[in-house]
Description:
Elements: H1 2-29, H2 34-61, H3 64-72
Helix pairs in contact: 1-2
Keywords: Membrane, Transmembrane, Transmembrane helix
Transmembrane segments: 16-37, 49-71
Amino acid sequence: xxxxxxxxxxxxxxxxxxxxxxxxxxxxxxxxxxxxxxxxxxxxxxxxxxxxxxxxxxxxxxxxxxxxxxxxx
Length: 73
């Protein structure tokens, strides 16, 4: 079960990265759009890394449930 959910997470992550790459390519084709798209792609990637980094760190440290309850409250 854990292996299956890990596979699904990696699959979603790869789709997210590919879609960001395609947006970057399209933004280069449209004049004036690249700065706007780069800004949003950069911040989306930073959010993704922060969320996944926090998720894995909390699971490794064993504090995930406690912190998730704090964030949800």
